[in-house]
Amino acid sequence: MDKLIVKDIKKSFGEKIIIEDVNLNLKKGELISLLGVSGVGKSTLFNIIAGISKPDEGCILLNGKDITNTTGNVSYMLQKDLLMNHKTILDNVALPLILKGVNKKIAREKAREHFNAFGLQGTEKNYPNQLSGGMRQRAAFLRTYLFSEEVALLDEPFSALDTITKAHMHSWYIDVLEEIKLSTIFITHDINEAILLSDRIYIMTGKPGSITKEIIIKEKRPRKNEFELTEEFLKYKREILKELGEN
Q1: What percent of the chain has pLDDT over 90?
Q2: What is the Cα–Cα distance from 171 to 36, expressed in whole angstroms?
Q3: Could you tell me the pLDDT band of residue 42, with boundaries at 50, 70 and 90?
Q4: Which terminus of the chain has fewer Cβ atoms in its 10 Å neighbourhood, N or C?
């Protein structure tokens, strides 16, 4: 059974239709990407999946249950890590559990259990301004995971990183996914990133925005950065560029 189903979603602001007839599905442990130009409606769709915004039409199903227009079911990570500078990394990461009513001491212990898996060991007592951009993103990922272990929505989480750090983060994140089996929907403008990380890619185009193509990446994860040099990779990229260029 699908972990998440997005069914027949339509959303307007005033008289302007932003997205229409949007359908996608996400399986357990799968990573899918939403790829499209700015303004096509990717973030609007994320807000609907997260329950922040109500669709005009359609519904969101999580494990078969209708969660349309309800928050707290899936986690949502924006481009910026939004770590609080006055709190330690441990307290930043434990925050979702504390907000759910877990005792602070217990929340810290539960959060601490994941620090090794997320490559954060030894940073518990540090503050965000003491960490590199990549390490801050790791902390933000862990906080996102602790908010909901069901589905994570990631809105361009690597876009602010330099090329070398981004490559390291790609490898790291895929390794973490293999361990925690977190189902993920990933927004990106980066075609290479989408091909490298995804099991499937949904391309959004048009005005109003809709999903016009689904591309299945057949090569198994994890894929090394060298995959970008292969003919198979270039074939996927040409297919995506053609779809984006024709719409």
Answers
A1: 64
A2: 23
A3: very high
A4: N
Long-range contacts of 214-217 (CB under 8 A, 24+ apart): 214/24, 215/239, 215/240
Pull the structure tokens for residue 167. 């490559």
Structure tokens at 108: 């810290």
Q: Confidence class of residue 11 from pLDDT cuts 50, 70 and 90? A: very high
Closest CA relative to residue 182, chosen from 93, 64, 25, 74: 74
Burial of 109 (0-12, 13-18, 19+ CB in 10 A): middle
Show the beta-strand stretches assigned E in the chain: 4-13, 16-26, 31-35, 57-62, 65-66, 75-77, 151-155, 183-188, 200-205, 210-216
- For the stretch 133-171, pLDDT in tens is 889 988 998 998 888 878 999 998 888 788 888 888 888
Check residue 66 and give its pLDDT.
96
Q: How far apart are CA 53 and CA 71, in angstroms?
A: 9
CA distance 137 to 146: 14
**Cα(126)–Cα(90) distance, integer angstroms:** 8
Can you give the pTM of this predicted structure?
A: 0.86
Sign of CA dihedral 25, 27, 32, 38: positive
Measure Cα distances from 198 to 64, 214, 223 in Å.
23, 12, 10
CA distances (Å), origin 12, targets 20, 84, 204, 247? 9, 34, 16, 20
> Over the stretch 62-120, which tens digit does the pLDDT of each residue have?
999 999 999 989 988 877 778 899 999 999 999 989 988 999 999 999 999 999 888 89
β-bridge mates for residue 9, sequence order: 22
160 backbone φψ class: left, alpha, beta (φ>0; ψ -120 to 50): alpha
